Amino acid sequence: xxxxxxxxxxxTAAASLLERCVQAGVLSQNALDQASKEAPCFSRVxxxxxxxxxxxxxxxxSLELEMLQxxxxxxxxxxxxxxxxxxxxLQAINTHLEAVLREKxxxxxxxxxxxxxxxxxxxxSYHRFVAELLPLAVKFIEKLDFYIQTIHxxxxxxxxxxxxxxxx
Length: 168
Fold this sequence. Notes:
Layout: H1 13-24, H2 29-38, H3 40-73, H4 75-78, H5 80-102, H6 104-112, H7 127-142, H8 144-153, H9 157-167
């Protein structure tokens, strides 16, 4: 069975070779330590690993920030407080609609009745005059707001006239 090259307990082939060289006296331990410390490629690899780790952390924090912003934007949709409020409103509407459905027959009867409960009895000889009067009454009612507003401004006319004299 082949040895696992990633197993940290067993030394790699390069480590075994360097260990044999130290034992044979070809290399000293100090020279080996100096070589590993002074090699710029190893320090560069470590820096790149640190940069990669920092980039991963930045990406993770950016993702967390994006999730928090999304949660903040959708709080009125997903937060339980707002959901409870909406649920209560829907329950009230549902209760009202259920009451309307229960009273459906009586509501239909009430809506079918005339507003004043009976027709106005008018003698046949006056029907022609009532037919002429109704359009005039409708026009009067349409302009009633304007008439009321005009009546309210009548007491203010002397004050407005004084102001006009002062400004001119």
